[in-house]
Amino acid sequence: MTRRGLGRPGFAVLKVGLALALLAGLAAAPAAAQGAAQEARDPAPETPYPWNSAAAMCDRTAGDPADVNAQLSDLVRAAADLEVAAAACRDALAAAPDDLRLRFQSGRILLAAGERAGLHAIESAAKAGYPPAELFWGLALKHGRFDLPEDTRAALLWLRRAANNENAWAQVILGEALQTGDGTAPDLERAERRLRQAFRTNLLVGAVPLASFLLEREQRLSRTDREAAEAAAVEAKLVLREASAQGLTSAKVMLAMTLRSGGATFATDTKRAFELMQEAATAGSELAIYWLALWLYTGDGIRQDRESAAAWVCKLQDPEAMWRVLGALTKLSCDNI
Fold first, then answer.
1. What CA–CA distance (Å, rounded) separates 84 from 14?
2. Nearest CA to 67 among 45, 100, 41, 32?
3. Residue 321 CB neighbour total at 10 angstroms
4. Side-chain half-sphere of 21: how many Cα atoms within 13 Å?
């Protein structure tokens, strides 16, 4: 496998991960997507409601309404007693039926509890213009979830509403749909506008998708417009450095992969790539741990250190999967290092 071959798969995982990070249980997002989404939220979001109130309990159980990765399965696990939480949501919503955040949060909890009324509450919040609900509803229609008919045209309308209401996740999803032609005609100019809009709205959400778009442009233009290709690569690295400085580990991973693999218009920087990947791995990024362990194990471009590689593998949530990737290359396991 060439060095470029090692670089691009991780690159694609990050891009696809962000595109597939779906709101409140619309799909089981891959681990890379979960990590990227979790970085763009407050791990312990404050609630605007009185701490001991039914509304606060409902809101805290549902989690940050802006968290695109808050899946229903996670809600069920997070709630010590989902029925108690659902009861709190009903009481809170009855007391404040016009509170759109509470309507959306209650809908998510009730839906997690298997109550169809939750879907109606979310739809109502979306129709009233609450951006997280608009995003949720658009994705539900796009994927035909919760017994809703799959309707790509309607889904795009809802996603545009959310995007125009400054929802960065909707802006990213629309940008990538325009980039790939997913449910709409491909349009790279409009895709770029949406991705830049997402970056302006929320750097932590928009940095990796925009950088990915720019690096693909660099590859596409490298033989026809060298100057434009170089400019795209320079901007992509600037975007990733800015996001990395803000602590976004997925940006550090992408920048590391970019520097390690090199591009059509720029050389590799293996030393800096290793440093960035190690920083992201130390911060707990599963994707970074995977690549760091692989690099250390194979010694491709860096000093081979299989003992350190094994130690990193054992930090993964599922180390056995990594041992299977290494296959016959090793007999190490987390039991004997």
1. 37
2. 41
3. 11
4. 28
